[in-house]
């Protein structure tokens, strides 16, 4: 189905809609981390509309359509996600220096958390919802990784993070690993959530250090969840609370239209 077939266009898109904008949006949606979804053959917009059961007749329905495409991508990406496939790792010589800072605000606004008073809250579908001090967290098994962080804003950088495999932490809190989501609340207004398969992936680390030093404020002190299998925005910094749930928690950018699965 093509939009430039004269008879069809009118019935698919109301004239007041900016057709070019819609196409840009849809192309971005198809191109983003989710391109794998449809493999080499990009499915047509019409075909997608049929798959998602949307009629593209006004602004509202186009929004619903794009949201459904994104959620459809989540499902397929989740299904394609191979829990045993590892993201590439790098050498120390390949690290990007300085490693970039990014947040929805400038670096001077990064939240300063007092480590002495800090308690990591744990809630939801866990056997033990007790809070953790940093000393207790630092005593967990340690792992290091040098991986590439990819930001959808168009940059990527190789960094070195140290911390504990997130699966170890989930085991210790007695998380219900058959639950669908792990959610994160941050010291700024950021929040995120991930699928359980990624939470248990061997390269998913709850990190407390950057390049061998205590994680600096700009990179997310006191901790950042680091997942080389996911795009930058999925990696929450300044984590204050972790919860396990079957209720879709969304995320800061996801709730503004970014794809939730966010695979890299
Ligand atoms: N709490 C919090 N976490 C966040 C963000 C944020 O604004 N607040 N931005 C995300 C985005 S878009 C990116 S690219 C990375 C940037 O991490 P960095 O500053 O260590 O490079 O953090 C992610 N995690
Ligand atoms: Mo990002």
TrEMBL record:
Tell me which species this is from: Caballeronia glathei
User: What InterPro entries does this protein's entry cite?
Assistant: OxRdtase_Mopterin-bd_dom (IPR000572), OxRdtase_Mopterin-bd_sf (IPR036374)
Where does this protein have coiled-coil stretches? none
Output the SUPFAM superfamilies linked to this UniProt entry.
Oxidoreductase molybdopterin-binding domain
Q: What is this protein called?
A: Molybdopterin-binding protein
Domain Oxidoreductase molybdopterin-binding, first and last residues per copy: 110-253
Query: Pfam families per the record?
Result: Oxidored_molyb
Q: Where are the bilayer-spanning segments?
A: none
């Amino acid at each position: 189905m093509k939009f430039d077939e004269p008879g069809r266009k009118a019935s698919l898109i109301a004239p007041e809609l900016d057709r070019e904008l819609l196409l840009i949006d849809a192309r971005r949606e198809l191109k983003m981390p989710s391109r794998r979804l449809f493999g080499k053959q990009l499915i047509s917009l019409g075909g997608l509309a049929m798959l998602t059961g949307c009629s593209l007749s006004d602004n509202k329905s186009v929004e619903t359509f794009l949201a459904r495409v994104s959620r459809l991508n989540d499902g397929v990406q989740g299904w394609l996600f191979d829990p045993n496939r590892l993201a590439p790792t790098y050498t120390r010589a390949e690290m990007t220096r300085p490693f970039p800072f990014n947040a929805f605000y400038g670096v001077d606004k990064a939240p300063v958390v007092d480590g002495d008073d800090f308690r990591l809250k744990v809630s939801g579908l866990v056997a033990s919802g007790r809070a953790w001090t940093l000393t207790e967290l630092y005593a967990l098994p340690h792992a290091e990784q040098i991986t590439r962080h990819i930001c959808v804003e168009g940059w990527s950088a190789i960094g070195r993070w140290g911390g504990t495999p997130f699966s170890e932490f989930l085991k210790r809190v007695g998380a219900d690993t058959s639950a669908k989501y792990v959610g994160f609340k941050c010291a700024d207004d950021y929040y995120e959530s991930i699928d359980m398969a990624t939470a248990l992936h061997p390269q998913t680390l709850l990190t407390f250090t950057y390049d061998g030093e205590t994680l600096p404020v700009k990179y997310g002190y006191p901790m950042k969840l680091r997942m080389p299998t996911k795009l930058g925005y999925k990696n929450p910094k300044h984590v204050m609370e972790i919860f396990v749930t079957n209720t879709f928690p969304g995320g800061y950018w996801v709730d503004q239209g970014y794809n939730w699965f966010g695979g890299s």
